[in-house]
TrEMBL record:
Listed pathway(s): Purine metabolism; AMP biosynthesis via salvage pathway; AMP from adenine: step 1/1
E.C. no: 2.4.2.7
Gene Ontology BP term (one): AMP salvage
Catalysed reaction, written as an equation: AMP + diphosphate = 5-phospho-alpha-D-ribose 1-diphosphate + adenine
Ligase listed as a keyword: no
Assigned protein family: Belongs to the purine/pyrimidine phosphoribosyltransferase family.
GO cellular component terms attached to this protein's record: cytoplasm
Pfam families documented for this protein: Pribosyltran (PF00156)
Chain ranges of the Phosphoribosyltransferase domain: 44-145
Main location: cytoplasm
Protein name (Swiss-Prot/TrEMBL): adenine phosphoribosyltransferase
C-alpha cells in the first residue's frame, strides 16, 4: 500500500514558506492507519521497555504501537502540561521555539524507542532524545512516520549516535 497517497500538503501553513504535511487522510482510513502502525512496528529492531511519543501527533502512533507490541508508553509533553517535578528542554522549531518536558525515569537506564510523526529539521526529535537522556532513559532507537528528506542533513544522527529511521520519505 502506498501510504504517501494519504498525506496531503498544505502550502504556506502555519506560516509562509512552510509546506505542512497533513496526516488526517491517513488517520481517517482504518486500513491505512493500521498499515502505518504495522510498518512502524516492523521498524522496531530493539526490544525496548517503553515507547516514547512526542506531543502531540507522536502520541497517536506511539500509543497504537505500544498496544500492538505490548509495551509501556511514555509521553513527552509540550511545555506547561506536566506538574512538577519534571525535566524540560527548549529547542528551535522550523518556525519558532518549542519546549518539551518529561518526568524523570523511575528506573535509570530504562530502554526506550522515540516515536514522532514527522522529521523536518530534526529539532524536535533531537530535543526529545536529549531530554530523555537527561531524564535517565536509554534511547535505543528513534522512529518517525514521515521523513522530509530535503529539509535536514542527509544522515541525521542524534546526540547518542543513533540515526532517525522512517516509514515514509518525502521531498
Amino acid at each position: 500500500m502506498d501510504l504517501k497517497k494519504y498525506i496531503d500538503s498544505v502550502k504556506d501553513w502555519p506560516i509562509e514558506g512552510i509546506n505542512f504535511k497533513d496526516i488526517s487522510p491517513l488517520l481517517l482510513n482504518p486500513k491505512v492507519f493500521e498499515e502505518s502502525i504495522k510498518g512502524l512496528c516492523n521498524l522496531v529492531s530493539e526490544h525496548p521497555r517503553l515507547l516514547a511519543g512526542v506531543d502531540s501527533r507522536g502520541f497517536i502512533f506511539a500509543s497504537a504501537m505500544a498496544e500492538r507490541l505490548n509495551l509501556g508508553l511514555l509521553l513527552l509533553r509540550k511545555g506547561g502540561k506536566l506538574p512538577p517535578p519534571k525535566i524540560d528542554i527548549e529547542y528551535e522549531l522550523e518556525y519558532g521555539l518549542g519546549k518539551l518536558e518529561i518526568k524523570e525515569a523511575q528506573k535509570k537506564g530504562t530502554e526506550i524507542v522515540l516515536i514522532d510523526d514527522i522529521l523536518a529539521t530534526g529539532g524536535t526529535i533531537s530535543a526529545a532524545c536529549d531530554l530523555c537522556l537527561k531524564a535517565g532513559y536509554k534511547v535505543k532507537q528513534a522512529l518517525v512516520l514521515i521523513d522530509l528528506i530535503s529539509i535536514h542533513p542527509e544522515e541525521l544522527t542524534l546526540s547518542n549516535g543513533i540515526r532517525v529511521e522512517s516509514l515514509i520519505q518525502l521531498d
